[in-house]
Specification:
heterodimer, A: about 325 residues, mainly alpha, two-stranded antiparallel ribbon, 2 strands, B: about 250 residues, two-stranded antiparallel sheet
């Protein structure tokens, strides 16, 4: 998702740049209050860790591999502020030193890959922990579901930016369905690996897991999660995304079918004439739904913004309690 | 580590481009990329001028063409995406070898290809002619928040150490016959990610204590090195100045 220069419109680049800069300045201030002078060495070395984590290839199926994005993992291990800051530095260095992602695309790349996964993922994590038992098992389950959801949120955020700053004639709902669809699959791998990784840290140094700071020793030793709680939490996450995605199925009965053809077309690279007729048909339906898709996109945007804001709020609150 | 001294990103040369102070090069790069990004896609001549500028800088800096091309793989996924745009774009209004394509899609493909490649080459040239610590030094001289540059410089300093640790874990797993093919076989990979985090964090704490014992108070000392002279600023700024004039002309005429 490291978009190059000029991938979205100039206005989108400037707007997302302003949002990212404002959020990161909050993250810097909060990170400094949490670990005043330790922040530089520890955030620096964990940034190197996140960079290395993105080189972790995990098997998906039959020998194909995916790699971790690490935004939610960093937020749960280090707290959302330090997590967002660390992933931001990784994205900046990748753009500047490794030419991975454009310099003028930093606004939306930071928003999608650092801010949304870290704050959104942490918000999802805090929310899910209400339904899951207060022990290490519940924490690991919440990590897995939140990390998976964070990837889908990043994909949704990208699609919404596409709506405002598209540089190609691909309608928003196609981009949204394809991005969210593909990233739901990627999210499964991200969730599994993040959960197991947090589990591994919990058994050795539970004190290093920011998300576990409210658990006592006895709660940490207990890793039982009733299947019912896990299924309920999983369902809750699925329902949230399903409500959003199903909006497209309502106004486009064959929406999912089309995405399948779309992705099948992209992977096979054949059947041009067939696909073009499908898309020609699509063009007319897409225009008619423009206002509706705009409304839905706005709604999704509000949901994501609320999730990010809730993550920020959750992260600041315990600090204030300690201060008193 | 034991792997000898090598630069994957930097091309060791003594060219005039290498000698310019980093802050001038970083600012020049940023302004140049902004000019490329704001140029309307219809102004093909403008992109040709940008390409010529980059080729001249590449020649003067003696960075091999193969080096730049091989490092361009980072933009490859977006290039592939762009290549499909004429076929999947809305509004089929043209015919190419019997396949219906969309003119709007062709323009979009050109836009993404041109800007991604020009932006990519410009960043690669900066990294190839400036050592990474110097890029960050340039950044802090341009008044980028100190926390960001300090964290980034730590990250770069320890990147090879952490990546080396990861590589050794990988070798150890492979040596014991671990060859996962399915997601449910990935527990050892996740466990090594957890272990890597603990090792990194603990290393960070040790580094912090070592820094404290050497008088660290929370601020990183500014390292020396030559700052840009007026002449260097003039030379470096000529490039984005030309690019910005081209971009503005293109904006007005198209």
């Amino acid at each position: 998702m490291h978009a190059p220069d000029g991938f979205l419109s100039t206005g989108t680049a400037i707007a997302t740049g302003a949002i990212s800069a404002a959020t990161i300045s909050v993250a810097i201030r909060q990170a400094k209050t949490r670990m005043p002078e330790k922040v530089v060495p520890l955030a620096g070395i964990t940034a190197a860790f996140v960079f290395a984590v993105q080189m972790f290839n995990f098997p998906v199926a039959a020998g194909t591999t995916g790699h971790l994005l690490g935004g939610a993992l960093a937020a749960i291990l280090l707290g959302p502020h330090v997590g967002a800051l660390v992933v931001t530095v990784v994205v900046v260095v990748q753009a500047l030193v490794f030419a991975d992602g454009g310099l003028t695309a930093l606004g939306y790349n930071i928003l999608n890959m650092a801010i949304v996964p870290a704050y959104g993922g942490f918000a999802m994590f805090s929310w899910l922990r209400r339904f899951l038992p207060r022990n290490s098992g519940g924490l690991i389950a919440a990590t897995g579901l939140a990390a998976g959801a964070s990837v889908v949120m990043a994909a949704a955020a990208f699609s919404i930016e596409w709506l405002f700053g598209a540089t190609a004639p691909i309608p928003f709902d196609t981009v949204f369905a394809a991005m969210v669809g593909v990233h739901s699959l990627i999210g499964i791998g991200e969730g599994v690996i993040s959960a197991l990784a947090v589990g591994a840290v919990l058994t050795v140094r539970p004190d290093l897991v920011f998300g576990a700071r409210d658990l006592s020793r006895a709660q940490l030793d207990d890793n039982k999660v009733p299947l019912r709680a896990f299924i309920f939490a999983g369902l809750a996450v699925t329902v949230i995304f399903a409500t959003v995605v199903s909006q497209f199925a309502v106004d486009n009965p064959d929406g999912l079918e089309r995405v399948a053809q779309d992705t099948g077309f992209v992977s096979s690279g054949q059947d041009h004439s067939l696909s073009s007729s499908v898309f020609a048909d699509y063009a007319t339906t897409g225009v008619a739904n423009e206002t509706l898709s705009l409304a839905i996109a706005g709604l999704t945007g509000i949901v994501i913004t609320l999730a990010v804001a809730y993550g920020l709020f959750r992260a600041i609150r315990p600090l204030e309690k300690v201060a008193k | 580590m034991g792997a000898g001294h090598r630069h994957a990103l930097y091309v060791h040369e003594h060219s005039p481009v290498h000698r310019i102070a980093p802050e001038a090069k970083v600012l020049a790069l940023f302004l140049f990329v902004v000019a490329v990004a704001i140029t309307p896609r219809e102004a093909i001549w403008a992109f040709a001028i940008y390409a010529v500028i980059e080729i001249v800088v590449m020649r003067v800096s003696r960075v091999p063409v193969q080096f730049v091309v091989s490092r361009l793989v980072a933009v490859l996924p977006f290039v592939i995406f762009a290549l499909f745009l004429p076929l999947v774009g809305q509004g089929k209004d043209a015919d190419f070898l019997g396949i219906a394509i969309s003119t709007e899609g062709v323009w979009a493909m050109w836009n993404i290809l041109a800007k991604a490649v020009l932006g990519g080459v410009a960043s690669i040239l900066l990294a190839a002619t400036t050592e990474t610590p110097d890029i960050l030094k340039g950044f802090s001289r341009l008044k980028v928040p100190g926390v960001i540059t300090a964290i980034a410089s730590f990250m770069i300093r320890y990147l090879e150490v952490i990546a080396g640790e990861l590589a050794r874990m990988r070798i150890a797993m492979t040596a014991r016959g671990y060859d996962p093919r399915w997601l449910w076989q990935s527990r050892p990979i996740a466990a090594s990610a957890g272990t890597l985090f603990i090792r990194s964090y603990e290393r960070g704490e040790r580094i912090y204590e070592a820094m404290l014992s050497r008088g660290y108070t929370g601020d990183m000392p500014m390292l020396g090195g030559d700052t840009a002279t007026r002449r260097q600023w003039t030379v470096a700024m000529t490039i984005p100045a030309i690019a910005l004039v081209v971009a503005l002309t293109a904006l007005v005429t198209v």
